[in-house]
């Protein structure tokens, strides 16, 4: 069965290989596990909670309508870090394709976290699509402003945490020469390094990375992921442990 729904989650399994699957928690529509031939690809903190008591630490948290904390906008500034999508229970809209198995989830104000939507009273519709390929995972978001009169200001981010056993031998390539904002140093510079390595705590945003640049994650000389993006110009590189 390629798509299985339980009260808590939706599981997509690839029809040609049942060791390739993805688990999506309805809370936050958070992809918290993606296995390729039984190998887990995503990091999940040992302290992660999957019971809806707090946003999942790990997997692919969905960041909307604000990335980090907003200090200036009248409404966005009232929301907690990374907004309200990851703290709301999404509706499972169903399976849209058999192969590759594809499922959709929706979020609108009526079902959003009641405490948080009070702080950001906007009209919107989010449709998340998750497609499980035999050797890839594709996630896509549609954001619709359902108000006839109000502007909708928002950030969107797939805050993906990849699983890496030993970060010391890991590099991220194809970001050389890009403008970067360092969230820890609170400063901008052009990254002159040929590759990104992880010798110290890292939390940076590469700005306006063209969609033609496929970003690669190389682990001990082996290319383990190629990231392709469409209409998502900024790329966050951060290291997380624990
Ligand atoms: O701890 P949170 O709210 O899940 O956020 C995870 C990380 O998100 C990043 O985008 C922030 O720059 C980090 O500072 C933060 O640690």
From TrEMBL:
Database matches in SUPFAM superfamilies: Galactose mutarotase-like
A Gene Ontology molecular function term of the record: glucose-6-phosphate 1-epimerase activity
Record has Metal-binding as a keyword: no
Classification via InterPro entries: Aldose_1/G6P_1-epimerase (IPR008183), G6P_1-epimerase (IPR025532), Gal_mutarotase_sf_dom (IPR011013), GH-type_carb-bd (IPR014718)
Catalytic activity: alpha-D-glucose 6-phosphate = beta-D-glucose 6-phosphate
Entry keywords, A to Z: Isomerase
GO biological process: carbohydrate metabolic process
Domain of life: Eukaryota
GO cellular component: cytoplasm
EC code(s) of this entry: 5.1.3.15
Residues involved in substrate binding: 57, 81, 86
Protein family according to the UniProt entry: Belongs to the glucose-6-phosphate 1-epimerase family.
PANTHER family per the UniProt record, alphabetical: APOSPORY-ASSOCIATED PROTEIN C-RELATED, GLUCOSE-6-PHOSPHATE 1-EPIMERASE
UniProt name for this protein: glucose-6-phosphate 1-epimerase
Protein's organism: Saccharomyces cerevisiae x Saccharomyces kudriavzevii (strain VIN7) (Yeast)
